C-alpha cells in the first residue's frame, strides 16, 4: 500500500510534490509568460498580414516616371520586369535569377517518387520530389530595404514575385521528364 504499484510493470515512481516545489514554481511562471505572450501576439496578428493587391513596386523606371505600379489582381500574372524593387534599369537585370548560376539543379541521383518516401503516394502514382535545387532565384529579395518596402503588402508582393519565378524555373527545368 501507499507508494507501491499494484502490478509488477515498470512504472515511474509516485512523486508527491508541494505546489512550492521548484518544478511547480517554474511551471507556474511559464504559464503566466505563455498567456502574456499569446495576448501580445494577438494584438499584432493583423499587422503581420499582407495583401499583395495593395503592394507597391518601386523599380527605377517607375520611380523615374513617378508612377506607382498596380500589381495584377492574380499573383500568377506577376512579371519581374515590373513587379520588383530590384534597382537595375534594364528589365533583364531585374530577373530574380540575375547574377545566379543558370544551372541551378543537381541532376546527380534521381527524382524521388517512391511510395515509401513521398507522403500521399498511393498505388504507384502521385507526387514526385524533383531533383535537388542548388540555389534560389532571390535577387529581388536582396534589394528589400526600408526605402522601397513600406508595408507588409510590399513585402508579400516581392516574396510572391520570387516564388512565381521559382515555380516557373522548376517547371522549365523538368518539362518533358514525366514528373
Automatic annotation (TrEMBL):
GO terms for cellular component: membrane. Residues 21-56 form the Plasmodium falciparum erythrocyte membrane protein-1 N-terminal segment domain. GO terms for molecular function: host cell surface receptor binding. Signal peptide: none annotated. Residues 126-176 form the Duffy-antigen binding domain. SUPFAM superfamilies: Duffy binding domain-like (SSF140924). Pfam families: Duffy_binding, NTS. This is Uncharacterized protein. It comes from Plasmodium falciparum (isolate HB3). The lineage of its organism: Eukaryota, Sar, Alveolata, Apicomplexa, Aconoidasida.
